[in-house]
Write a structure and sequence with these properties.
The chain is α+β, with helices and mostly antiparallel strands. 28% of the residues lie in helices and 30% in strands. It contains five helices and seven strands. The strands form two sheets. A four-stranded antiparallel β-sheet has the order 1-2-3-4, with helices on both faces. 29% of the residues are buried.
């Protein structure tokens, strides 16, 4: 697997490989975590109040051990990372109860692949993957203010609830819970 390092990389020609979403292999985790860290820094520079403190590498490794880390690849190039986990989310028990549900976490596009709608492609592929597993819903939460709710809204996620959440960092933010209802013929 290779990852380009030139942020000024031009968009791929029309004959570029079709994007493919798959679980990350162990030898791809370093590159994936680097994409995550670069995206955290980029979000901070843009003033997006999401991921103010990066998750520790140990958290990322634990997700890998559980088979939750995915990558969208263009040929051999890792372009986007995402976490898909089936879990009980600690911050939304009053809305979702104690039942395990599918969650999309940590969607991050490598700098050299930004602006090519690959985040959208990743969400669509994740919905298709979960549909093939028999899932009926995919959840996420994100900052309620700013661009993210509208971005995820155009990808088929509907807002369910908003509330202030205080994170381990001590920061409190207004967060929106969103759901994509996966149906047999629907794509994100």
């Amino acid at each position: 697997m290779k990852r380009g390092s030139d942020p000024a990389r031009q968009p791929a020609p029309a004959s570029s490989p079709r994007p493919s979403l798959r679980a990350l292999r162990g030898d791809e985790v370093d590159a994936a975590y680097e994409i995550y860290l670069q995206t955290c820094a980029w979000l901070q520079r843009k003033g997006v109040r999401q991921w103010l403190l990066p998750k520790p590498r140990a958290t990322f490794d634990a997700r890998q051990d559980q088979g939750e880390n995915y990558g969208l690849f263009l040929g051999n190039d890792l372009a986007v990372i995402a976490t898909l986990s089936c879990e009980v989310h600690a911050y939304w028990p009053e809305k979702l109860g104690a039942e395990k549900r599918w969650w999309l976490h940590t969607l991050a596009v490598a700098p050299e692949f930004r602006g090519r709608r690959l985040g959208e492609e990743t969400v669509s592929a994740a919905v298709s993957l979960l549909r093939s597993k028999g899932a009926s819903e995919l959840f996420l939460d994100c900052g309620a203010e700013g661009v993210l709710p509208a971005y995820y809204g155009k990808l088929g996620f509907d807002p369910l609830a908003k509330k202030a959440i205080t994170y381990p960092s001590g920061n409190t933010f207004l967060i929106v819970l969103m759901r994509n209802t996966i149906s047999a013929g629907k794509t994100a």
